[in-house]
Amino acid sequence: MEYKIFGKTGQKVSSIGMGTYYDPAFITARKLHLKGINKTNVDAVKSGIDNGINLIDTAELYGTEEVVRDAISDKEREKLFIATKAFPNHLKPSKLRKACLRSLEKLGTSYIDLYQIHFPSPFVPISETMKEMEKLVDDGKIRYIGISNFDLAKTKEAVSVMKKHEIVSTQMSYNLFDRDIEENGLLNYCKENGMAVLAYYPLAHGKLVNIKGTDSPMAKIIESHKGAKPVHVALNWLLSRGENVFPIPRASRSDHVIENSKFDSYTLSNEDLDLLKKITS
């Protein structure tokens, strides 16, 4: 497994992480207490850790913080980098602290490595939220502050209100089909400011794994790299976009996670990268 520094944290984490968003039906079932903890999901996260992936992303919205708790219960906590998120209706200072404490309890840990704002709020000034986030760092509840689904303008605004601590990361949809963060300047801004980018939907909801046709760029690259899989190409393409990019494919099944962990068995050549420019949705 390859490891690299996560933003300005100084912390080395695996080049790819694991996401634990499953689907809207799962979230609804969890909220209505119709679905318990799925052992398949727990085993998937465990498999990732056993294969060197130490970056794990969840959120209070997902209903999977307990999945992560069960997966890490017999692991060395200090070797893991656990990220979770606060939902927009919990961004007032008092609600944010309560949300953080709930997440800590559900995760079964005394601290969160990366606490992220899941979406910007149109109702709560970002300065109020970030002031409380900084207090959570000072109190030892969280180690680092991140954001998610913030466009460039809102990212700059969030960065501008920080007083004591820095925003170390953002989380955005990013894959071969969805390159908005390249086109709107957000990726360059993050590079210039030392912010890590957690790339969710790195496989474009599975579309990149199921590209058909022997003449497709994906097929040609796979043919030139013995043992390569479409998932490896998709992850390696993201990693080629910068040292600050960390794909977080979903961890739903152990076999998928183990396959993901083999991404570093080869690297993409310049010719491969040129071919991938021809891929469109």
Order of helices and strands: EEEHHEHEHEHEHEHHEHHEHH
Portion in helices: 25-40%
Please count the helical segments: 12
Mean pLDDT: 92
CATH class: Alpha Beta
Unreliable spans: none
Output the strand order for the largest sheet. Answer: 3-4-5-6-7-8-9-10
Content of β-strand = 15-25%
CATH superfamily: NADP-dependent oxidoreductase domain
Count the E strands. 10
CATH architecture: Alpha-Beta Barrel
Report the C-alpha radius of gyration, rounded: 18 Å
First CA to last CA: what distance? 30 Å
Number of domains: 1
In CATH, the topology is named: TIM Barrel
What does the largest sheet look like? Answer: 8 strands, parallel
Shape: globular
Structural class: alpha/beta
Describe the structure.
- The protein is of the alpha/beta class.
- Helices cover 38% and strands 16% of the residues.
- It has helices spanning 24-31, 39-50, 65-72, 93-107, 126-138, 152-160, 180-183, 186-192, 217-224, 230-239, 254-260, 270-276; strands at 3-5, 12-14, 18-19, 55-57, 81-86, 112-117, 142-148, 167-173, 196-200, 245-247.
- An eight-stranded parallel beta sheet has the order 3-4-5-6-7-8-9-10.
- Helix 4 (93-107) links the parallel strand 5 (81-86) and strand 6 (112-117).
- Helix 2 (39-50) packs parallel to helix 11 (254-260).
- The chain is globular and about 55 Å long.
Q: Which terms would index this structure?
A:
single chain, TIM Barrel, eight-stranded parallel sheet, two-stranded antiparallel ribbon, 12 helices, 38% helix, 16% strand
Short summary:
The protein has 281 residues and is α/β, with parallel strands linked by helices. 38% of the residues lie in helices and 16% in strands.
